Amino acid sequence: MKTWLITGASSGLGRLMCETLLARGDRVFASVRDRAVLDGLSAIYGDRLQVTVLDLSMAATIKPTVEAAFAQAGSIDIVVSNAAYGLFGAAEELSDRQIERQIATNLTGSIQLIRAAIPFLRQQGGGRIMQVSSEGGQVAYPDFSLYHATKWGIEGFVEAVRQEVAAFGIDFLLVEPGPTATRFGAGLDIADALPAYRDTAAGKLRAALMSGEFVIKGDAEKCVTAMIAAADAASPPLRLPLGSTAYDNIEAALKMRLHALQAMKAVAYGADRQEG
Questions:
Q1: 209 vs 206, residue with greater confidence
Q2: What is the pLDDT of residues 217-259, one digit of tens each?
């Protein structure tokens, strides 16, 4: 039996992960913004599901919540940073309040969750942190600029911190799903459209999303199965792309960036100091 701490467990991948882990006999500490949404699972699984209220945008509440979970559990094998907020709209269309909430939840909140967990994982001799990112941590769509800022940001944070804590037996797994059939789309905070963007790439994507033409290939249950399998593995990959859309988009983006980088090699080397 493994013990998991999962944020954002009320719906989507977080909820499915809780259900799957509990069904196989594991113990789950789940954080949600509304405790009642997990009452049905609590009635079935009793003490193996411990529910706590946490809003990652309220940074001061994160550390006490993590401390309480480790104190009650004794040890936690895997911390899953899954809670997220989706913001949609061209950068000019977004309000300051929306931008602040996006960064506070997806970036600052995830950073503070990881920082709060590390001392306990270090003291217990190791553990694993699964950060749910997105294909949007390596590629970019119009209308998701602030969402991408948080996902690219958290991936850079994880890349650095994993080097800092590897000696303590702590490792990381970045999960990068493509568009997946969850209620994430229904929960998007959509900014009011500006007419100036109607015929731009941003306007065209907005129209596709609103009309239902935006293609969603990912299967949530298959994604969760792959996430748990990776978390169970002795040596998981750092990055786990999920869905053909994610794989194809990330591959294309990496090839394009590599090609662009190689074209700049002479310029880059030319900026070195000359010896002698």
A1: 206
A2: 889 999 999 999 999 999 999 999 999 999 999 999 999 999 9
Query: Does the pLDDT of residue 186 top 70, yes or no?
Result: no
Report the C-alpha gap between 159 and 57 in whole angstroms: 22
Question: pTM for this one?
Answer: 0.94
Q: Is 1 exposed, middle or buried (0-12, 13-18, 19+ CB in 10 A)?
A: exposed
pLDDT given at position 217:
87
Query: Quick one: CA dihedral 87, 88, 90, 95, positive or negative?
Result: negative
